[in-house]
Each structure stands twice: as C-alpha cells, then as structure tokens.
Design a protein that fits this description.
This protein is an alpha/beta fold. It is about 40% helix and about 15% strand.
C-alpha cells in the first residue's frame, strides 16, 4: 500500500461521529444537522429535466475534455460573472466531476515529487487540500486565518524561505469555514509571490455565488485581469454547481485558467478516467446558462441569516460573513465539548472548528470555534439557533 495513506488524518466527520458516539439526544427535539455544508434547497426543476432528457445518450464513452457545448457554457458564464473576456473553451476550460475531485487530483498532476516539496493552504481549511498534498508526496504548509488577520491569510508574514519550496498554494475565497473574501491587494501579493517563487495557485471558489447585498466576491481570474495578468500565469480557478445550483449530487464543476496547466491536467485526467457522463453534461449546460435560480438560492440563504443572527447574537458574539452559508461561532467552552453538549442536550449537530484546523507550534486556529452550516430549511435553522443560544446562556 502507498505509505502516504498512513499520513492522512481522520476526516472531520469521522471525528465528529466518534465524538458523538454513544450520546443519545433528547427525543423531544427534531434532529437538525448543521455540521456539513450540503445544500438542502430543492434542485431546480429545469436542471432535473435536462438531466433526464439526456439519459438516452449513454451508448458511447464521454470525452475527458467534455463536450464543446459544456466548455462553451462554462466560458460564457465565467465571462458574464467576472466581467472579463471569455476564456478559450478549447485551451483554458476543463469540466470536472465536482471541485472536490479536481482539487485533490490537481496536486497529483502538479506537485513534482522532490525532497522538501510543500503545498500551502489556509488553516483551518477544507481537508481535501491536506490529503492532496500528502498523497502527492508533499508536506503541508499551514497558513493561519485568525480574527487578528480578518480570517484571511496574511501572505506577507510567510518567510521567503518557506515559499521557496512551495509548489502549489491552495486558496479558498469565499473561505471555508469563515466566508471571508480575498481583496485585490491580497491577490496582488499572492501573484507577486507566485512570480518570485514559481508556485501554482489553485483558487477554490466553490462558494462564489453565495453572497449578499448584491456584492459578488472578487474572483481569482477577475483579479488577475484587473492586474494585467492576461493568460493567467500559474493560476487556475475551481468552480462548482453544488452550492450555486443546489445540486451536490450532480458532481459537476470546472477548472479554468492557465492554458498550459489546463493541458497538463487534462493529460492527467485522461488516465485518471474522470469524464462527466452525457446526462451530467446536459444538466450542467442548463445550470450554467440560468441565473434566476441562483438569485433565488441567495435569497433563501439571506433570509436565514437575517432570521438567525439576532437569535444567536443575544447569547454569543457573531458576525455575518461576506459570503458562503456558514457561521463561524466563538464558543464559551472547548469547541468539541460545546458540539457534544449541543447534540446531547438539543439534538443539533455542528462541527468543532478544531477538527478543521491543525496544531502549528501548539496552536490550532480552529480551536474555540464551531462551524454552523445554514443549509436546512429556515424554520429548522431558526429553531436550532435558539437551542445554540440557550446552551450558550447556560454555560
């Protein structure tokens, strides 16, 4: 077996199951799962119809590069969303089977297996980044996101000696778990560091369409164009339909950016065997071409934030994030104990922040927080917010 498998840490939800094992929540409370960022809004009917209407087209193997109409739909959406020239559908666009799969596979294609190779990532972070680094034979470089730096990575604090060995830098904007968004100055510094040290930037933007107050988050490709970086050198962006269109089961996303990187990643994926089936591609074309359902999706999340924030704010300090559908709540006791008690006393499941972070010099920047995903229907989310506030008041 690959010895790097032994370097993997238990996935956060495995740790959560272990934490809650043997706990019997009170039967009088409806179970509410706010621990996982799985959208629960109904899938738009037109996407389902497009999927079902293409089911007959299963008699041939799909191309790894995807059908031209899907690449063109993605390129057109990127141009509309970020007000930039459309990327070349043939050279700069690659459909993928969900951003999670692509984020992992990308490191396998890009990391050169040499001694001292590093992969940079925010801390706390989406755990796929770490697994991708370890199984590519690299070591993670954890970059803390804390309240002191506005929950964004302060790239200026990373010494040049650390950057020298970095081959890939994962960035997540809007961020998981905090919803914070990188600024143009953040991107400018990161691009300058990439130019200086030669590392590739993998921009995870799967939450890009969950935003509020008509303030779309700045995108990686958009920032590059604003800074005169035509061709997106050493930069790729990962997008997904899962959160945008409430279709996590569709497993459909894209990689867009540096044509040389996209070409090499396509070579890897040709051997990896991760092509999208024709029905998935047809449904994806329909989804990327419509914005009305996305606006309605945002409206539903906005209503939940407006209903929940006053309830929790009466007991705990809380701020609305710029984007995404998470609350990153500071807990009055140990975060794992808070999550365990919340489940034991009121049948609400949240994710301890320490499960999303790693100790660096004895400090885990996720410790003392819980991530609350406002994915369920509004009534259940509001009821859960009252139970969170009630527990906080009792502590």
């Amino acid at each position: 077996m690959n010895p790097d498998l032994d370097r993997l840490q238990p996935y956060p939800f495995e740790r959560l199951r272990a934490l809650l094992a043997g706990v019997v929540p009170p039967a009088g409370f409806e179970p509410t799962i706010l621990s996982i960022g799985e959208p629960k809004h109904p899938t738009p009917r037109f996407i389902v119809e497009a999927l079902c209407g293409a089911v007959g087209g299963l008699s041939s193997y799909p191309a790894t590069a995807g059908e031209p109409r899907l690449r063109e739909a993605i390129a057109a959406w990127v141009a509309r969303r970020y007000a930039i020239p459309a990327p070349d559908p043939q050279r700069e666009v690659l459909p993928v089977s969900g951003s999670r799969e692509a984020l992992f596979a990308f490191a396998q294609a890009v990391v050169g297996r040499r001694a001292g190779a590093r992969v940079a990532m925010p801390n706390p972070f989406y755990q796929i980044y770490e697994g991708a680094a370890l199984l590519a034979g690299a070591d993670p470089l954890y970059l803390p996101t804390t309240a002191d730096n506005g929950f964004r990575v302060d790239f200026s604090r990373v010494p040049d000696a650390e950057w020298a060995n970095v081959q890939v830098a994962y960035v997540c904007s809007p961020g998981n778990p905090t919803g914070e968004v990188l600024t143009l100055e953040d991107w400018k510094l990161l691009f300058e560091l990439s130019d200086r040290h030669g590392f590739v930037i993998a921009a995870d933007e799967c939450y890009s369409e969950i935003y509020f107050d008509d303030a779309p988050p700045l995108g990686a490709l958009q920032a590059a164009r604003m800074l005169g970086r035509a061709g997106y050198p050493r930069l790729v962006s990962f997008g997904s339909l899962s959160k945008r269109s409430s279709v996590p089961g569709l497993r459909s996303g894209f990689v867009v950016g540096d044509a040389a990187l996209v070409s090499r990643f396509l070579l890897y994926r040709t051997y990896h065997g991760a092509a999208l089936g024709p029905p998935i591609q047809a449904a994806s074309v329909a989804a990327w071409g419509d914005e009305e359902h996305v606006a309605e999706n945002r409206r539903l999340y906005d209503a939940k934030f407006r209903a929940v924030l006053p309830v929790i704010a009466a007991a705990l300090p809380v701020e609305r994030p710029p984007a995404a559908f998470y609350l990153w709540l500071r807990t009055p006791i140990d975060d794992a104990e808070f999550a365990r008690r919340l489940y034991a006393e009121s049948n609400v499941t949240v994710l301890p922040g320490s499960f999303l972070g790693r100790d660096v010099d004895g400090v885990n920047p996720g410790r003392g927080y819980v991530r609350v995903a406002l994915v369920d229907v509004e009534a259940r989310v509001v009821a859960a917010a009252h139970r969170i506030a009630d527990l906080a008041r009792r502590l």
